[in-house]
Amino acid sequence: MTPSDALLAHLSGMSLFRNLGEESILEMLRHMHLERWQKRAQVMPAEETARRFYVICAGRVRIEAEHPTSGRAVTLYLLGPGDGHNLVTLFDAQPHRVLAETLDATEALSAPVERWHTWMRQYPALRLALVRAAAKRLRELTELAEDLALHETSARLAHLLLRHIDNGRTSEDLLHGLVHEDIARLIGSVRVVVNRLLNRFKQEGIIATEAGHIHITDLEALLHKAERHLHLRD
Q: If DSSP codes are grouped into helix, strand and coil, which group holds residue 40?
């Protein structure tokens, strides 16, 4: 299999491209640029995403909002393979001033926003997939806002783990190997609090950790953690 064939097969499995034919994907690839970034690199600045739309092919990227004076940051969401950035700008053509940092060595494909607009008119399946991706992102941000406004930190951590469960364990793709500082930024907290809560969850038999993985060992208890703190704040 050639590198081009491998990339075609990889894209064909992604939700954005799954309902497109091979010829359509190959035509799109002719106009895309492959980016490779090191781990912990600042990438995709707002000015650039106003001009180009990116699709992550490998690795993870953390998207954050940062206070301009205090420097305090909260992670809005994580991008993994198949996720696009920046969906807001793709639809409204306005720069979205967020910070993007790679959590792994990362690869992404990009093309000019105008080219994506042409493809959206040309390929209805792509347009529908992008609308669904935007709706999913809106739901994620709504859930984050609800968590930060209504739930205490213990519940927010439980919600995070529940959102990323994959067959009884947290998703390797997005949470695997994250340090406690990274997890804290995902729930609007600080490292020392997350460290204490994870240790409490382990002592209570709710989770177990191994080689960077968080395993859910008592799903019912984790669900209880997520539900019982509604409308409370730290």
A: coil
Q: Which domains does the chain have, with CATH numbers?
A: 3-139 (2.60.120.10), 151-228 (1.10.10.10)
DSSP 69-106: TT--EEEEEEE-TT-EE-HHHHHH------EEEESSSE
Alpha-carbon gap, residue 200 to 107, rounded angstroms: 36
Instruction: Quote the CA–CA distance of 3 and 225 in Å, as a whole number.
Output: 46
What is the distance between the alpha carbons of residues 151 and 162, in angstroms, rounded to a whole number? 15
Structure tokens at 184: 């804290």
- Amino acid making up residue 218: D
Beta partners for residue 108, in sequence order: 35, 56
The token pair that represents 67 in the structure block: 């206070």
SS3 assignment, position 233? coil
- What is the value of pTM for the model shown? 0.82
Q: Which of 168, 210, 194 is nearest to 75 (CA)?
A: 194
CA distance 36 to 54: 12
Longest dimension (CA), the chain: 55
CA angle (128, 140, 156) in 5-degree steps: 165
Q: In a structure prediction context, what are the per-residue pLDDT tens digits for the chain, which is 234 residues long?
A: 556 778 888 899 999 999 999 999 999 999 999 999 999 999 999 889 999 999 999 999 999 998 878 878 889 999 999 999 989 899 988 888 899 999 999 999 999 999 999 999 999 999 999 999 999 999 989 988 988 888 889 999 999 998 876 544 344 457 888 889 999 999 988 899 999 999 999 999 999 888 778 888 998 999 988 875 444 433
